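pinned: reference chain
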Amino acid sequence: MNISIFEAMISSVIDRIMHNKIINDEKILINYKKEMASIDKEAKETGVNPFSISTRTTESINARLSIFDKIIGDSIDDL
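pinned: its structure tokens
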């Protein structure tokens, strides 16, 4: 896992923990694999991968955070 993926994932996890959400570890693994495969496929078609772009631009940071907000959000267990 590269640092930009790790950074985005940790930020999303911390946000959910701070809001007392329960993240299902089985769901997160499934959702992570599914989303990253989709990103890889799209990157091969378009040549654009948000995890290989400069990590210093606000646009690339927001794109990565958005991806992990979706992955983590889809992995929350409803109480």
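why pinned: DSSP finds three helices and two strands in the chain. Residues 3-77 form one domain.
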